[in-house]
Amino acid sequence: MADLIPGEDGRRGQIVLLSAFILAVAFVALALVVNSAIFTENLATRDDVPGSQDALEYRYEVTRTVGAAVAGINDDPDRSPSEITAAVREINRRSGTDQSVLGQSVVIEYESHDLGTRLAQDSAGQFTDANGDTDWTLAGTVHARNVVFNVTSQSALRSSNPFTFVAGDGSDEWRMNISEDGGNVTVEVETPAGERESCTRDLPEQFTVDVTAGTIDGEPCYALIQQTSGERMHFATGLGDAYDIEIRNGDAIEGTYSMIVNSTSVSGGQYDSYPDDPYTAEAIYSVRVNYEFFTSQVGYQTEIVVAPGEVPP
Fold this sequence. Notes:
Elements: H1 7-42, H2 52-74, H3 84-100, E1 105-126, E2 136-142, E3 144-151, E4 163-168, E5 173-181, E6 184-190, E7 196-201, E8 207-210, E9 215-216, E10 219-220, E11 243-248, E12 254-261, E13 279-294, E14 299-306
Antiparallel strand pairs: 1-12, 1-13, 2-11, 3-8, 3-12, 4-5, 4-11, 5-6, 6-7, 8-9, 9-10, 13-14
Helix pairs in contact: 2-3
């Protein structure tokens, strides 16, 4: 049979056509890979891709649900942090069942968790250490989250030498005071720069100050979330992941408290053993899960780090 493209020139032509075809296929494959990466990266900021908002909204639900499981384990000193693996498996099972009805495939897989320590006082009393000291260090060289003070007796607060919660790294120091004067409660925050902001409220005898959430009895306290200049911040902003946390004038308050720190090496001299107060307990500081969400229109996968109540360093 005669060649369709005779001679040497024909062979060269075939090679050129074949090379062009291979390059075209390569470019198409590369475009698909790049577009896929761009889609995955931008999904978090886009809602114009059909179904993408569902993936992002359910990611929030996964974070909230896993966070609730972490809090449930941490709040019970009799439970072990290792229980988080079974908890995530159960969340995955329930999510898969619920979402399959909607034509969605959801996978939530436990990857790992970081241990920390819960510092707590469960019985109402003054915020002294196990030795009765009113000025003491709760933990050194840590980052704290979920810092919550439950005041059970407003009348125990003082207007002078008030209860003070301190976070400092040796150079910079944040202070938060809780005081009472004339039936009103004041929460005052002083930044390392010396700026002071305060919230004064008419509160009941019992109330809660959630330092990391920036609220008093569930209502925003701007002293806890922004500076005098209006710049948004959180208590201990700028101190990084290594600072000391202290209580001063622990006899100027009565109630309970709880917080999680990212260290398993907390000195025990100032603490009792559970169930005596105050105590320390092994806790989950953060947990990582793999999250996948698929529909006929969207495929999304990411790692979620869950640390309830954590604020930026």
